[in-house]
Amino acid sequence: MIEKLFTPDFFRSVSGVIIDKLTQYLSDDSIRGLCFIPQPELKQQVKEMMQFNDNMPDIERLKQIVERYVETGIQVHSTGYMGRQFTPVVPFIPVFEAIGALVNQPASLYEAGQLPNIAERVMSEELGKYIGWEYPNYDMITTSGGSLANLTALLAARNHFFPEIAKKGMCRWTKQRVPAIAISADIHYSIQKSVSVLGLGSQNIITLPLNEKRQIDVHRAKQCLDSAENSGLHVFAIVANAGSTATGAFDPLDRLAALARSKKIWLHVDGAHGASFLLSTKIKHRLKGIHHADSLTWDAHKMLFVPPLCSMLFYRNKEMSYKAYGQDASYIFDSQHNPYIEYDSAYRSFECTKRPMMMNLWLLWAVFGKQMFEQLLDKAVKNSLDFYYELKKQKDFETLHYPQANIVCFRYIPNKQLSSEKLSELQLIIRKKIVENGRFFISKTNLDNIAALRTVFSNPFITIETCRELLDEIRWIYQKL
Ligand SMILES: *Cc1c(COP(=O)(O)O)cnc(C)c1O
Q1: Residue 334 has pLDDT above 60, yes or no
Q2: Among 298, 299, 310, which residue has the most ligand 1 atoms within 8 Å of its CB, making it the best to mutate?
């Protein structure tokens, strides 16, 4: 039996079953969001699938498991999916991805994954152009998620400004001024987590106020930085959004960069969601000034039609990429011993073993080029605008912001007399019912302390008719309450 597991025939027959099931899944063009199953029930089902027998392979059981796996996922390939920031995946990509898994090529060292490492370098060269950087002054490393990219960038910044901390540790840091960072009030929570890991202390986060478009208000930001300095803090990094998680707002990067430069502060741009829009001729102006950033997080697994993980961390100055993990850049660049060291990303990323995560993106880029991404992104943006204008026409709905990319937040207001508590509560109930009904999947967020419904147009194939059906469902849910 054990021998059989590794045979080509066994591989072929079992894989065929899985591919057939996935083809069936892709053929379903119904509108559906998520088949929500309470945890104890699903746990029971999972245990029932685990009865071992000698009948190998138990094809029926395998089919049942694949079905359950597919059914319990958020239905990203359906137009009922409007809730999260990850796109549907180009369907053949996961099959291509199986190559990396089968030949088992981790990507941290050149000799273990030659093609993945080269693909990373090549994609860095390709995408850097859209940031506006000149190869080879900048560099990019892949990380296991945008959260880790954010953490790594802040670590590099901290070590750059406080090399003594990198050596002596935070507790022996004796200089007067306390390291601090300044962030958008709408920042992703991975930044707070990074502050925790870095030991900076949550008290040393300066929250920068937003304007009515939910972008950092640069004028007031300057005042905040001035007063932080006066109170003995050394703000060494500003973290701005290029596409905030809540509403997709882009901070004014050019003006923030000027502010950061004038104060000698590192500007980190969290473009996990929105950096992909650099590939859209129509939207890229929202990232104006991005080339001044010191570092940029860019998740391809959010908006570029590849599965997780595929995250990139760009540094404007290549040498900075060696600061995060305490490698001396001169050793890397001056050493003649190992010409491949620049290709070994393990020196610059936290991971040792790492997924060969660039291969999927590189393949799509190699075969279809930038144009495919641009067309899909522009469709997604158009859909969100269509929905926004549809909402504006409805008297019982309130829009909360003009969509700067592909996120639209709104509220259902059946009755103008509702208090803000009641209004907030109603949005949460509606969102919960929508998800339970299973036809649509949308999310929620909090804007100015009142809950809001949040739609993300990650699936480019959503139609305005589907959006209207969503609004009808919301009204229907309210009537039933
Ligand atoms: C999703 C997201 C992150 C986190 O990225 P992961 O890849 O999920 O770790 C960080 N910042 C923003 C703005 C995001 O939208």
Answers
A1: no
A2: 299
